[in-house]
Amino acid sequence: MKIIIRQSDFNRIYEHALSERPNEACGLIAGVDTEDGVREIRKVYLLTNVDHTNEHFSIDPKEQLAAVKDMRASGLSPLGNWHSHPETPSRPSEEDKRLAHDPRASYLILSLAEEGNPVLNAFHIEGRLEERMVRKEELVVVMEDRQIRADEKLDVTDVVCPITFVKTKVALEELEEGEVLQVHLNDGEPVQNVPRSVKEEGHEVLRLDDNGDGTFELFIRKVGE
Length: 225
Prior knowledge:
Layout: E1 2-6, H1 7-20, E2 26-33, E3 38-47, H2 61-74, E4 77-85, H3 94-98, E5 106-111, E6 119-126, E7 133-142, E8 152-155, H4 163-173, E9 180-186, H5 189-200, E10 204-210, E11 215-221
Parallel strand pairs: 1-3, 1-7, 4-5, 8-9
Antiparallel strand pairs: 2-3, 2-4, 5-6, 6-7, 9-11, 10-11
């Protein structure tokens, strides 16, 4: 099976895995299976490893339930899970194989063993416990189209910092998770401070475009509620 993941989702997984080192990080993946046999990951969930160890992971049950509910509300199907190997290669450990109970799932493993060179692979695992079969799946990381569709637009060129960020934060609070806010802002302090501040709030900066006239377009995807 061919699996497609967006570069921005790969980046989110990588950054979360780095933040959780030396422990394993984990989460779920959701999306659709197309008629031509391609599995498209359309949303990744960054969840808590309640084991807090570098050898295995257990997803927080409450977070897992909330993620599944969100998938249903978004019209997405659960496709499997992902987790990191802070010190070992990107392949299933004996523990990973033992805990792979769903033969329909894709299991993504991100290795951080080589500093600055993350390796993400996908695997299919099935069969009886004593003779689990592991097959590597084709995983393609794709760049998003340069045309980003904004769900809402905000112009803060008429205010100064910190009001630029305050207005941006309020606008993000009114969006649903996953929706995109386009912010029109000035050069100088606004373009330096607003992107940094929204990242600190946990949101995803998709792109920052220079309009060439002293203003910028900032695209932000809301993460979390």
